[in-house]
Amino acid sequence: MATVCWALTRLRIRRVKCDETKPECQRCTKTGRKCEGYKHVLKSRDQSPAAAASFRNPSFLVVPQKPHPTSIPRNPSRSISPDSAENRSFFFFQTQTLPKWTEFFDSELWSQKILQLSHSEPAIKHGILALSTMHERFESTSPLFSTKTNDFAFVQYMHAVKHSNDLLTAHQEGKIDLEKVLIACIIFTCYENLAGNYRAANMHLRNGMRILRQHKANVSSERQTSAAAESIAHVLYRFDLQAMTFSDNASPYDYGFENPPDCPRVPDVYTRNLDARNDLVGLLRCMMWISGIANINPHAPEHPIWLRIYTELMGSFEKWESAFDKYSCNIPLHEQGDPKIYAGNTLLKMYTIMARTVVLAGAGMRTEMAWDSFVDSFKTIVDLAETIPPSLSRSQTPSEYSTAPTVKRRPSSFSPSFELSPIVPLFLTACRCRDPVLRRRAIAILLNCRRREGVWDSFGAGMVSLQCVKIEEGIDATVDLGPDNWLPLNPECTDGSQVPEIKRVQDVFVSVNMTERQIGVNYLLRSGETVDRYVKF
């Protein structure tokens, strides 16, 4: 039981949780790290895109009992405003952002419901325009952020925040349904994550999860939940999983017994990969929760809630693998040639292998050498990632002792998403698989794909894992990458077993500065030594 309890503890990028001593917390300074926890206090609240979050109504939590649905156009046009700049931004969202947002799985919530609501709800319209503008800036060389009061993205976001208060008031009066309130929470979370304001994003996510729990508590079990409401809930659950796997100093995940995740009821067979994805996310949330809360409280495994979720999880994960295998062997003919279905199924396989590997390896709690028995599993993860088109297209793999691929690939366009993506399995592979070629293949994919998955940035994850490899293999930090972002092999390290236990990285602590596109990283080695690095992304 203890092995599984701790199995996912080191899957996530970890943070130093501030103890709230001002101006710098003692917990950070005692460990030799720079405390980032109170930088926001020193900044003027109206000089940053994060300022909008401070205008959010803290009562964005109340759930009235009798919402009244309102009509929305079924086929909204691409014209959303008399303003040409707003229409242009909306067109960009439809034609550029949405296809990348839904690269692995279709989403009627994003491609239909939210687009429709953009024509009738100002909070949602302006939130979408802010997201679209942020995406376009990532694609270009324009600065991501501006302190100017007329900055288009910031102005749109401020409009969205202002109208969200009107939305809240209407909801409290029973004039609109819960879905619109939660969609506003989702959009605000997306924007703040793209902007790198993780504290504000975490606040919006926690509010959304709180509203959802209140709603479920007030709805009788006999009452049927709408498909849109279910879709919204699953988006929030995916955001929650991202928050569990990545927490920086400013936004530590709050584990507790008060609101544990629900273990999904897995069917005998799936008919859609969307359902398989939703259940897998639920299982991963349970796995992260039982390990995370046990990491904080050593007596947690004795608690009846912990024992219940652990017991349910163990049976449900095996049942999920069986149900997904049946689905994979009986994919309908009309779906077999669909690249999105293939990409989504491939992604689910990667996450399944990752979860199973972490559990069986015990997350390296007793020894980092435990990962060496799972080279084949790591290879399968990388092989699968290299088959996913188009954003994660195949990178050329050199022979075992070559120094670099011979072809220089073009950098792909930026692909923002708040759904599952290959970033987490590839990051785990790059850091935990000590096979020198496999981990370089994983890093090359991360650096080449330019993808954002909520708080996860593929290039940032690639740079953090790159320094991990350099530290473990004794490569100088200044050694440059070759063509196709390939790290030259170290002739003195041709096999993973040549990386001794004491030189292996067991924990990674990060502090992200999105404005400067910089990550402060503290690597904790098995020997107890710490190494600090700063990486640009």
From TrEMBL:
An MF annotation (GO) of this entry: DNA-binding transcription factor activity, RNA polymerase II-specific
Start-end of Low complexity biased regions: 69-82
Disordered, as annotated region: 61-83, 392-416
Superkingdom in the source lineage: Eukaryota
Domain Zn(2)-C6 fungal-type residue range list: 12-40
Regions of compositional bias (Polar residues) in chain numbering: 392-405
Pfam families found in the cross-reference section: Fungal_trans_2 (PF11951), Zn_clus (PF00172)
UniProt keyword Phosphoprotein present: no
Name the UniProt record assigns to this protein: Zn(2)-C6 fungal-type domain-containing protein
Key words, A-Z: DNA-binding, Metal-binding, Nucleus, Transcription, Transcription regulation, Zinc
Keyword DNA-binding set for record: yes
